[in-house]
Amino acid sequence: MELYFAPMACSIATRIALYEMGKGDDASFHRVTLASKTLEDGSDYYAINPKGQVPALRLDNGEILTENAAVLQYVADLAPEAGLAPAYGTMERYRLQELLNFIGSELHQKVLAQIFNPFAPAEAKAFARDEVAPVKFAVLAEAVKGKAFLIGNRFTVADAYAFFVLSLCPFFGIDLGRWPSLQTYYEGLAARPAVARAAAEEMALMKPN
Questions:
Q1: What pLDDT score was predicted for residue 208?
Q2: What is the pLDDT confidence band of residue 21, given thresholds at 50, 70 and 90?
Q3: Closest Cα partner for 103 from 65, 147, 152, 69?
Q4: Is residue 103 left, alpha or beta, with left meaning phi > 0 and alpha meaning psi from -120 to 50?
Q5: 47 DSSP assignment
Q6: Band of the pLDDT at 207, cuts 50, 70, 90?
Q7: Do 30 and 40 contact (CB within 8 A), yes or no?
Q8: Where in the chain is CATH 1.20.1050.10?
Q9: Are 158 and 96 in contact, with CB atoms under 8 Å apart?
Q10: Could you tell me which of 83, 59, 57, 93 has the C-alpha nearest to residue 153?
Q11: What percent of the chain has pLDDT over 70?
């Protein structure tokens, strides 16, 4: 299994999941430079994933799986005993899918991606940060109020994706302290060994040589 990732992009959620289930050392990691769509050897990433985005997961049979929610659920299902995703057919599994879609569309794309977009007008960035973010992050804050995890009492891939989003907030002008439950939730996630390991490794890759 091979994960194509970019440092501190949403692909970190898959790295976290692999570490949480004890399979990180069995996987290969290939760094992608998203600006140029190239791999470390200079080859064209579009040849791997025509969408040009991360994550992309090469399965043991050679197939390529893309899209964060799909990749995360596939990885979780490799080791059901780890509890990273509820069983298919249960209401909890649909709640997981609900959360993955909310985090991906409402927080990642409508807020963070808009603020990060170098081609977005300043007014659009400000609207995403000052008007959209408070509404959307309040929903997540309510979901974790009095809880350590989003679903039940176990860490799931939804928490891994949420960690990615929350870890970027300080760099995007979004103060998590505005939502005490969200701040506490994020700090709890960051303290997990698998999460801390993944974040440390990817942050190190962002430092200049």
A1: 59
A2: very high
A3: 69
A4: alpha
A5: G
A6: low
A7: yes
A8: 91-194
A9: yes
A10: 83
A11: 99
CA dist., res. 135 & res. 168, Å (int): 17
Q: Look up tokens 């701040």; give the residue.
A: 183
Is the preceding omega at residue 7 within 30 degrees of 0, hence cis?
Answer: no
Q: Which amino acid is at 36?
A: S
For the structural domain made of 91-194, what CATH number should be given?
1.20.1050.10
Give ∠ CA 45-48-49 in degrees, rounded to 5: 85
* H or E segment to which residue 39 belongs: strand 38-39
Start-end of CATH 3.40.30.10 domains in the chain: 2-83
**Residue whose pair of structure tokens reads 């439950």 in the numeric block:** 181
Q: Could you tell me how far CA 126 lies from the centroid of its own chain? A: 23
**3-class DSSP state of 121:** coil
Residue 209 is predicted with a pLDDT of 46
Q: Angle at CA 43, nearest 5°, toward 48 and 14?
A: 45
pTM for this structure?
A: 0.96
Which amino acid type is present at position 48? I
- Render pLDDT for 69-99 as a digit per residue (tens, 0 to 9): 999 999 999 999 999 999 999 999 999 999 9
Interval 185-209 mean pLDDT:
92
Distances (CA, A) of 163 to 11, 42, 83, 132: 11, 30, 17, 19
CATH superfamily for 2-83 is: Glutaredoxin (3.40.30.10)
